[in-house]
Amino acid sequence: MKIMSDRESLQDMLDCHREGDETAAWKIYQLYEERLVRLADRRIGRRLRPHVQPESIMLLVLESALGGIAKGRYNVDVSGSLWNLLEKITDNKIRKKWTYFTAKKRDIRKEIRPDDDEEKDPLEVVPCEPPPDEAVILADQLEKIRSRLNAADFQILELQLQGYSHPQIAKQLDCARQTVRYKAKRIEQLLRNWADG
Known about the structure:
0% strand; mainly alpha
């Protein structure tokens, strides 16, 4: 994780973000994403873990925090107060997920209906298999890319390669379309930089 040593730099980023600068939002995002994934991973708990990924919590937290800061709902100015806000939002998001997955009416065992043709998943994508020689090359390239991307970014890339649209990916990851769009742009830029380098 990139560590900020100059508090004024974070203050500048927050001010620019409040003025609508998307670049500043991404800098704040990059500064806290890994730290938030680790925090969420520690706090999710073993019962919730099969149903909730730390990366999806991180996306929800940053979306909520950055949106609230831009709209003036949250007054943060330095690293400590921003991190305290992110911790509180993380706990709230995990608590909401726990409430959702423990509600009787949402028992996940009742959601699985493999024999019901009318209840097919609207996000289901029909797989398209490449020829064997291309599959080997593709698998090798994907492994190289996986080693250079964090888990949340690679998950979005995988879903894109499977043919999912941004709205479908947002629904699967339980986050905003805008978050997926930003991350997809960032991934595309990283891949271009690696190809050029």
